[in-house]
């Protein structure tokens, strides 16, 4: 299976009735500021460079972000923070993202999430996470060049550790773990408004994570050559 075929499989998934119902309802009702938008309203596949060395794992599509635009971290404040940081560290060709046709291209990065449907209150249930885990596991298999995994938030971190079979690792913003597979696992707070507006996640600390990832890839390349 290719990343493209997996994306089609994800988009067609209806395993979680609660989420399928919710994403459709949001897409139909909309909100005033997006009343003229044609919502995606279904599971959102991963996005980016299929040969990427960096994998970013988020929580789930935002109800009026990726659930509206159909692309991970696109169209909401979390995406504003993510894509600006990727641009400033050379991983993206532009600093913002508004829709699937906006010309955004990722360089050496693939973005995915633990859950593929927007959940009510941004809280997917345990069985819904389990249903989606097969997709993340398949992406880990298909993305053969990954050297760095960046987990945004505890839930993404815990799910990746479970799939990877890594035990006893702790989560803290900016913390790095070198796994036996050779992959570097990086932790970060999620760039949600709850974190950015309260100051729990500051811009300089957020940007530093991506700068360090860039430097670690450069260092690894120099060591190989």
Overall mean pLDDT: 95
Q: Which stretches of 5+ consecutive residues score pLDDT under 50?
A: none
Radius of gyration: 17 Å
Count of the separate structural domains: 1
CATH architecture assignment name: 3-Layer(aba) Sandwich
> Strand arrangement, largest sheet?
1-3-2-4-6-5
Main pleated sheet: 6 strands, mixed
Instruction: Let me know the number of strands.
Output: 6
Quickly count the helices: 8
Q: How would you sum up the global shape?
A: globular
Oligomeric state of the chains in view: single chain
CATH topology: Uracil-DNA Glycosylase, subunit E
CATH class: Alpha Beta
Protein structure class: alpha/beta
Overview of the structural elements:
- It is a single chain.
- This protein has 225 residues and is of the alpha/beta class.
- The protein has one domain (3-224): Uracil-DNA Glycosylase, subunit E (3-Layer(aba) Sandwich).
- It is 41% helix and 11% strand.
- The protein has 8 helices and 6 strands, in the order ααββααβαβαββαα.
- The chain has helices spanning 3-11, 17-29, 66-69, 77-88, 126-142, 154-164, 193-196, 203-224; strands spanning 47-48, 54-58, 109-113, 148-152, 176-178, 184-188.
- It has a 6-stranded mixed β-sheet with strand order 1-3-2-4-6-5, with helices on both faces.
- Helix 4 packs across helix 8.
